[in-house]
Amino acid sequence: MSTIASQAARVWKSAQxxxxxxxxxxxxxxxxxxxxxxxxxxxxxxxxPDIQETFLMLKSADGDADQDVQIKLRPDMVVLRxxxxxxxxxxxxDAHSVAVKVGGVxxxxxxxxxxTREDGDSTTWVEADGGVLKKTEFVEAAVSSDxxxxxxxxxxxxxxxxxxxxLSKDR
Length: 171
Prior knowledge:
Distance between the termini: 45 Å
Structural class: mainly beta
Number of helices: 0
Radius of gyration: 23 Å
Largest sheet: 15 strands, antiparallel
Helix content: under 10%
Strand content: over 45%
Number of strands: 15
């Protein structure tokens, strides 16, 4: 069981708004974006982030640059990213879902409550109704939302457990 800290710990020490221009005034792609803070701390969000980006840099309170967070403000989503191996690496929030990347695992929560978990070897879906599907290179397994049916498929076999009994068949 987790506990909530009774005192807030300082995680960030500063925040700075920036605009990054990826193309020069003639429209040519720059090798590195030209970045500067807007004078009045206001910036529009360009329709194409490959041309112009608006982002906020949060500096870590402990001075560890790997803990710094970049918050990209895009017309269709907000993206948080950092170069940190000990926790979350990225978060994407759009109109329909929130996705988090932690330790090489991506987890997406969709607007309907369904969840997708992906790592390098497998994908697991928890459907909005509670059904579960797991797929790897070698097997696909599913459990119905009420727990009454389970199936397992391999390249060579199909096995199902249903209220009517067990079925196992070579493919």
